[in-house]
Specification:
By secondary structure, the chain is mainly β. Among the domains are: 32 residues, no CATH class; 40 residues, no CATH class; 127 residues, no CATH class. 3% of the residues lie in helices and 30% in strands. It contains one helix and 45 strands. Strands 17, 18, 20, 21, 23, 25, 27 and 29 form an eight-stranded mixed sheet that branches. Strands 35-37-38-41-43-45 form a six-stranded parallel sheet, with no helix packed on it. The longest helix is centred in the first third of the chain and has 19 residues. About 1% of the residues have low confidence.
């Protein structure tokens, strides 16, 4: 009986111990597991680390993803490797390694590199060389040098390889150039020069016009051709000497007219007003060194006159002197000229190019008006004003440089210059006249802050104008600056309306600078009616910047941009004040 009781107690103790080994005395078990995975070919699990080593935590079937795909190459076979997150993996699609497949290329030796046979595997790219040979070295042939000529450099002896393009550099012997006589002159009727004394006898050095300032003979020995004074009529000149007043009715003169330098033993110093006006037979005229001034309408309407030779000594070209010379293509103004009067070359429709020397200080109004073929012009650096209508209607003018000395640009000075796409207006310009650039081909314009007055219609009808930057020196606007400008995309201006002092304002709306004139292509404009007036703002305009004036404040009044439906961006610089409702219904985004 006692033995049975001892066995029963032992059994109960064992059961109790097993129930409390992985938990507390309450009988709640907490197994512990390894962090690493255990696995077989089918499952993976975390093995128990407590006394219940038969327990398997998180047991699940393997889930495989492709870890690696490898193609067979010459070194090893190919396969697809599958792997589970637990670390168990296996391979499928195993293929054996391939064999090398070598292509053979024979490379011949050169002057600078040895030869060899190259074996390169087409499968894996492995390569090796056999049959290597040494480089050949250059096979040089000697060549004599080349003597220099008047136009080409020579060289010293050199060598060239027969097998490649290698060559040694012979010492360069600089060309001596043409040789000219320092004392001997050659000449024609217009110019003189020093002739060549080398083999190239047609070469010339120092070509320049004859200079008769010290008499009828030039320094080169050429004697000025003297026309027969008896063929001309003369009057005493107010500046001394004689003035040619015309051709005698009884005289017969050649179409190539050379004017006399002397009469009755005295100098001929002037061409009188209208002396040759309306003569349609003249083709070429040579004005001698003695003549100082060409009078009003001296050659007006000489429709066949193509060439004019003006010699040094001339100081003034008079009003309308060559106006209407529709055949004139060539004229060179000497450095002695100081004044070119108004209308001097008006209507010279074939004149394509002209250089005005720096000696000219007075350039009158309408000097080149209607010169439709004039494509470029060099303007004198000393002038202070471009006169009214100076280049009006010069439809071919595409290049002009305005000197920094210019202060004023006159009325319609460049109007109708449709080929003029760009012009730089220099600092110092203060005034731009009415319609100064109207109808021109400008694509952009920037006015320096020195401009204080911009007259009405200054850029009217500039249909290619896209970008505008106005001077911050402007204080008052004149209406219609940009009337009919249908392509403007951006504009920078100092104030909105007709002035920056709103206590004096009569027009405060943005459209004021575009005016009320109905444009020909009205569909390209937004018609904005304010204060009983309708302004025409180009629909192309999207960007506006208000910079503020250089002195004082700038105020944008209520309703200034009301109705400006196409403007999408407005930038206001510091110092620009706004009144309530200034933007109106304009959809623009405002940046300050």
């Amino acid at each position: 009986m006692k033995k049975w009781l001892v066995l029963l107690v032992s059994l109960l103790l064992a059961v109790f111990a097993s129930l409390t080994a992985c938990g507390d005395r309450s009988g709640n078990h907490t197994h512990t597991y390894a962090s690493e995975w255990s696995y077989d070919d089918t499952y993976h699990w975390h093995a128990a680390t407590c006394a219940h080593d038969g327990k398997e935590g998180d047991k699940a079937l393997h889930v495989f993803t492709v870890k690696e795909r490898k193609k067979a190459d010459c070194e090893s076979g190919g396969y697809t490797l599958y792997e589970c997150a637990c670390g168990y993996s296996y391979k499928e699609d195993e293929t054996p390694a391939s064999e090398h497949n070598y292509a053979v290329v024979t490379v011949a030796p050169t002057c600078t590199e040895g030869g060899y046979t190259l074996h390169k595997c087409l499968v894996c790219g492995d390569e090796y060389r056999t049959d290597e040979t040494e480089m050949l070295g250059h096979n040089l042939i000697d060549y004599a040098g080349k003597l220099p000529t008047c136009t080409e450099d020579g060289s010293g002896a050199y060598q060239i390889c027969t097998r490649c393009d290698y060559a040694t550099d012979g010492e360069t012997i600089v060309s001596s150039g043409h040789k000219f006589s320092p004392t001997v002159w050659a000449f024609d009727e217009n110019t003189h020069w020093h002739p060549a004394i080398c083999a190239h006898t047609d070469e010339k050095y120092g070509v320049s016009p004859h200079n008769f300032a010290n008499g009828a003979m030039c320094v080169c020995g050429y004697v000025h051709p003297s026309a027969d004074p008896d063929a001309f009529e003369f009057a005493v000149s107010s500046s001394g000497g004689y003035a040619i007043t015309g051709i005698k009715e009884s005289a017969t003169v050649d179409a190539n007219l050379i004017l006399p330098a002397t009469y009755n033993g005295q100098a001929v110093t002037a061409i009188a007003d209208a002396a040759f006006g309306g003569n349609t037979t003249l083709v070429k005229v040579t004005v001698p060194f003695s003549i100082k001034s060409i009078g009003r309408e001296a050659f007006y309407g000489c429709s066949s006159l193509a060439t004019v030779n003006l010699e040094a000594g001339l100081t003034e070209i008079g009003y309308t002197a060559f106006a209407g010379c529709t055949a004139l293509t060539e004229i060179e103004i000497p450095e002695t000229v100081k004044t070119i009067r108004s209308y001097a070359f008006e209507g010279c429709t074939q004149l394509s190019e002209i250089d005005i020397p720096s000696s000219v200080t007075v350039l009158g109004d309408q000097v080149f008006r209607g010169c439709a073929a004039l494509a470029s012009i060099a303007m004198p650096s000393g002038i202070t004003e471009i006169g009214n209508y100076t280049f009006y209607g010069c439809s071919s003018l595409s290049a002009v440089e305005i000197p920094s000395t210019v202060k004023n640009i006159g009325v319609q000075a460049f109007a109708g210059c449709v080929a003029l796409t760009s012009v730089q207006i220099p600092n110092g310009v203060a005034y731009i006249g009415q319609k100064a650039f109207a109808g021109s081909g400008l694509t952009s314009v920037t006015l320096p802050d020195t401009v204080t007055r911009l007259s009405s219609y200054a850029f009217e009808g500039c249909v290619s104008l896209r970008t505008v930057v106005l001077s911050r020196g402007l204080t008052f606007a004149i209406a219609d600056w940009f009337s009919g400008c249908s392509a403007i995309e951006s504009i920078s201006l100092p104030f909105v309306g007709d002035n920056n002092d709103k206590t004096l304002a009569t027009a405060t709306v943005f459209g004021f600078i575009f005016g009320t004139k109905v444009p020909s292509e009205v569909t390209k404009f937004d018609a904005v009616t304010r204060g009983g007036k309708t302004y025409y703002i180009p629909k192309s305009l999207t960007t506006v910047t208000v910079t503020g004036v250089t002195k004082g404040g700038t105020v944008i009044s209520a309703g200034a941009f009301d109705g400006c439906a196409s403007i999408t961006s407005i930038t206001l610089s510091s110092g620009v004040a706004i009144e309530d409702g200034w933007l109106g219904d304009c959809p623009a985004t405002v940046t300050k």
